[in-house]
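User: Predict structure, ligand nicotinamide-adenine-dinucleotide.
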Amino acid sequence: MEDNTGYSILRNPRLNKGTAFTYEEREKYGLLGMLPNAVETIETQISRITEQLENFSKPIDQYIYLMQLLENNETLFFKTITSDPSKFLPLVYTPTVGEACQKFGLVSRRPRGLHISIDQKDQIKEILRNWPEKDVRFTVVTDGGRILGLGDLGIFGLGIPIGKLILYTSCGGVPPEHTLPIILDVGTNNEEFLNDPLYPGLKIKRIRGKEFDDFVAAFVAAMYEVFPKICIQWEDFPGVDAIRILETYREKICTFNDDIQGTAAIATAGFISISRLMKKSFKEQRFLFMGAGAAAFGIADMLVKKFQRDGLSREEAYNQIWMFDVNGLLVKSRSDLAEHQLPFAHESEPSNNFAESILKIKPTAIVGVSTVGGAFNQQVIENMSAVNERPIIFPYSNPTSHSECTAEQAYVWSNGKAIFASGSPFAPVEFEGRLFTPGQGNNVFIFPALGMAIFATEATSVTDEMLLIAAEAVAEQVTAADFEKGLICPNVNDILKVSINVAEKVAEHVFESGLANVERPVNIKDFIKSKMYIPSYN
Ligand code: NAD
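Assistant: Predicted complex:
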């Protein structure tokens, strides 16, 4: 039933302005009597929201409230989020979204996004055509297999694509009508869900192997047929699947994986900004990784590209990066290394002692991606402090309990010298009368801006260069004052301004490398701004 009455306008989140409808609009659309008498500004509406939110003590309840606002009035929702990003982003994305996914069956009020299950492989196009928007440009898709550090959350993982696309819009300006969250339901290995009568997904063990890959291939083909300008961002697929999917499609379609590439880009941005603010050449950095798995290779590959961009040969670049895995230092004499580990295995004595290796290798930075909480012990930090005036300590393992050291340990054991950034958040630390703000690598400075550049230019692929340029552009915007406080990323409250600058640089590269599908404008920054979604009733 098509209903264009005022009543239906009030229930359409894209059209609804609530109490901000003017008297003229109320008369025109048949809204008289549907609203209280006062005509309010969007600022007054935000004040009310802020006050109503304070009635909820738990972040999860605030999340539910904000999601309902999104379903009720999209403009007001995005205006609220962008009014105070440092307050609202943690409520609509990490850390609150993790709990929201765990309880998605209880917190979800109205389906948002698309559910595509593996038994619907032959109906994917039909499902995609049911989506009301016809020009979808950006999708975030997950199979719920490894949600944040929380494991297999089945179709409740959909909370992540929903949250991430909110960030594409609020932090990068990608218009919401061009975004689409998707969950691929391939079953779940979560026993609790399999036995829960209220779990609404497929109650089968996860389908793997060829059948899974064929389903993903059918999904990709259908997406391109129904939405020819689509960019697909893969999210929170289990490690091996994530790498394989990315490798399969990265050269063929416009796609990327934020867990792998976004994380690598923001870590690289951190090292670039530290080098710049220490007035040191990036080429002087030497890295020692604890952990030689998926995360290590994502980051190390990008560091190699950065070294090469700064003039080192490929071999020289590899020589600046050393790695430890569970069996010790990666050295040429080891016979147990995988193909992708070989370039990082150097001519050296084998070692099982990370702290001792620091004294020999003299890294300027150590990167923890081992999943071993506490692995950067006092000796490790002290040795880093012995070979560096300002040791760079990056424990990147998530969640907090897996972090290789805490912020406090890094500052105390290094006598306040450490430059610290982690994967999980840490509270500020007071040490000897000084307040240290631990840095955190936050991908939010990368993917929304990258998304905006792709959206504006209609880029046909996502290259490593685009990510590296995004990393450099983020690093450029960290100020000496931020760095003094301990921050290695810009202030999150400046996110939109930062994203515009990052998107400009990435778009410039897209045009230069012939990957754009639109004509190069005279002024790229103005062009980006003209395409951005700005939440406003006008
Ligand atoms: P992974 O299982 O692929 O790799 C773990 C690596 O650590 C392996 O090389 C293993 O040999 C090594 N290791 C284990 N115990 C060790 C020890 N005692 N000493 C030295 N090395 C040891 O895991 P991953 O996907 O690379 O993730 C690692 C951590 O990084 C996780 O905590 C994850 O949350 C975090 N992280 C991952 C990503 C990602 O994209 N995968 C991104 C950001 C952060």
